[in-house]
Specification:
This protein is an alpha/beta fold. The chain is built from 19 helices and 16 strands.
C-alpha cells in the first residue's frame, strides 16, 4: 500500500489554485486541483484523499456540497474550508457538519500549511483508531492503546516475557492498566487457550480470600454443605492474576507461598495436596521494597513473585497518548450509548492534555464517558466536561497579569464568556458553539451578565 499523502484542492480562482498546488506539492504531497465543486466531487468518487481544501463560494456545487460529498464518500478525510470574511459564520456551520477547520481569506500560507499538517495528524489518528477497533472485533486480545515511547517499550517488554512461564510483578499507580497488561501477557503466552483468573487481594477478608483461593472440603466449616474448588484449582493450566498483592494479609502470604513453591494446594478442611500448574502475575501500586523492609510483606514471597518486573508508566509520562486514548474511549462509549458523537473540540483536548490524572488512564476514560452522557450534539464540548475541568478552560489559558483574588461564580462565568468572545473575535455563533449553548441562550447570558455585545 502506498504511503503517499493525497490532497484535493477545490478552488475556482485560478491563481489561488495554482499557488496552493505549488506550495503543497513542494511540501511533498500529491495534489489534485479542481476548478469547481462539480469536478472536485468527481475526483472524490475516483480517488482516496487524506485532506480536501475547498473554497466555500463556488458556482453550481459550492464548498458545502464538496464537504457533504467528502464526508459521504470518505468519512475519514479531513475538509478545510477557505472563505471570505463575510462568510465566516457559514464556515462555522460547515464545521458543525464535519469540516476540520476554516481559514478566512486572505490567509498566510504558513498558517495553511500548519493546519494541513494538523489535519493529516488527525486523519492518521482516525485510521489508527479504526485499525484498533477492527483488531478488537477480530480478537479478544486486550488493546494497549498508545504510540508514545513508554508504551512502545511496554509492548516490546510484554512480547519478550509472554512466551516464558516465569512469574511477573507489575508495578504502577492505580488506573495505569496493570490488569490489561496481565491479560495481554496471558493471550500472547502458550497458556492462551487455558483460563485467565483474576482476584483482587484487597477486596476480601483474610478468611474469605483463603476460601476463594483454595476452596474447601465438604463440611469444612459451618455452612460448607458441599465441596468447593478454589479459584487456583479452577485455573489449573492457565494464568492467575493477583491484583493488589501488596494488600494480602501476612498469614495469607504464608499459605500462598507454599502453593507458589510446591505447585500444590490444600483445600480448607482437607489434608490432601492437589497439584496445580499455574503462571502467576501479581500487581500492586505499593512500594514493595518498603513494604518488605517494614515487615508488611514476606521477603521470600516478594522474590518468588518478582522474577520479571514490569513498570507501568503514568499517563503524565505518556501525554502524547492522551488524544488517541480520548478518541478511542469516545468511540467505544458512544457506540455503547448509541450516540452519534464523532469528534472532540480542540478546547477539550487542550484541557485533557494539561490535566494531572491522579487516576491515570482509568480516570481519563471516566471523564470521557461522563462527558458523553451530557453531550447532545456530534462534538464533545467544554460544557460537557465535569465541572472542575470546565473551569480549566478559562483559568488554564487566560493571560495572567499577576495574582488574582477569588471571584464569585457569576463573575467567573462573566470572565469566561468574555474570554471566549475575545478568542472568537466576537463571533457569537462560534462562541456559542464552544460554550455548548445556542445563540439565543448566549444573548440572554450577555444581557444578564452585562457583557457588551
Amino acid at each position: 500500500m502506498s504511503n503517499e499523502i493525497r490532497i484535493l484542492i477545490a478552488e475556482d480562482e485560478e491563481i489561488t489554485r495554482e499557488n496552493l498546488t505549488h506550495v503543497l506539492s513542494r511540501d511533498g504531497y500529491t495534489v489534485d486541483a479542481a476548478p469547481d465543486g462539480e469536478s472536485a466531487v468527481e475526483l472524490l468518487r475516483a480517488n482516496q484523499y487524506d485532506v480536501v481544501l475547498t473554497d466555500l463560494r463556488m458556482k453550481q456545487v459550492d464548498g458545502m456540497g464538496v464537504l457533504a460529498a467528502a464526508k459521504g464518500l470518505q468519512p475519514e478525510t479531513e475538509v478545510i474550508m477557505l472563505t471570505g470574511f463575510a462568510t465566516v459564520e457559514t464556515a462555522v456551520q460547515a464545521m458543525e457538519q464535519g469540516a476540520y477547520h476554516y481559514l478566512a481569506k486572505p490567509y498566510k500560507l504558513d498558517e495553511l500549511r500548519a493546519i494541513v499538517r494538523k489535519a493529516l495528524e488527525k486523519n492518521a489518528m482516525a485510521r489508527e483508531l479504526n485499525e484498533l477497533r477492527l483488531r478488537a472485533a477480530d480478537s479478544d486480545i486486550p488493546q494497549i492503546v498508545g504510540q508514545s515511547p513508554a508504551i512502545t517499550s511496554l509492548r516490546e517488554h510484554i512480547a519478550q516475557v509472554a512466551p516464558v512461564s516465569s512469574n511477573v510483578l507489575i508495578l504502577g499507580e492505580t488506573g495505569t492498566g496493570k490488569e490489561l497488561v496481565a491479560r495481554a501477557i496471558h493471550h500472547l503466552s502458550p497458556r492462551r487457550n487455558q483460563r485467565f483468573m483474576a482476584v483482587n487481594c484487597a477486596g476480601f477478608t483474610e478468611n474469605l480470600l483463603a476460601n476463594e483461593l483454595f476452596g474447601h472440603e465438604k463440611e469444612a466449616f459451618t455452612g460448607a454443605g458441599n465441596l468447593k474448588k478454589g479459584l487456583l484449582e479452577q485455573a489449573d493450566g492457565g494464568t492467575f492474576f493477583l491484583d493488589e498483592i501488596g494488600d494480602m494479609p501476612l498469614s495469607m502470604q504464608t499459605k500462598f507461598l507454599r502453593t507458589l513453591e510446591h505447585k500444590t494446594l490444600i483445600r480448607l478442611g482437607g489434608n490432601r495436596e492437589i497439584a496445580v500448574d499455574l503462571r502467576f502475575i501479581a500487581a500492586t501500586n505499593r512500594d514493595m521494597t518498603q513494604a518488605v523492609e517494614e515487615g508488611e510483606f514476606r521477603r521470600d514471597l516478594f522474590y518468588r513473585l518478582n522474577v520479571i518486573t514490569i513498570h507501568m508508566p503514568t499517563l503524565a509520562e505518556r501525554r502524547e497518548d492522551i488524544e488517541l486514548l480520548a478518541r478511542f474511549f469516545l468511540h467505544k462509549h458512544a457506540a455503547s450509548m448509541g450516540k452519534a458523537v464523532t469528534d472532540i473540540a480542540p478546547e477539550v483536548l487542550a484541557i485533557l492534555d494539561h490535566y494531572e490524572y491522579p487516576g491515570n488512564v482509568r480516570e481519563l476514560e471516566n471523564i470521557v464517558e461522563s462527558s458523553l452522557v451530557m453531550c447532545t450534539g456530534s462534538v464533545l464540548q467544554v460544557t460537557h466536561l465535569p465541572l472542575d475541568l470546565q473551569q480549566r478552560s478559562h483559568w488554564m489559558t487566560r493571560e495572567c497579569h499577576g495574582p488574582t483574588e477569588p471571584v464569585t461564580l457569576q463573575e467567573n462565568e462573566k470572565q469566561y464568556i468574555t474570554w471566549v468572545l475575545e478568542k472568537t473575535g466576537g463571533n457569537k455563533t462560534h462562541a456559542a458553539q464552544i460554550l455548548g449553548i445556542d445563540r439565543a441562550s448566549l444573548w440572554r447570558k450577555l444581557k444578564r451578565l452585562g457583557i457588551e455585545a
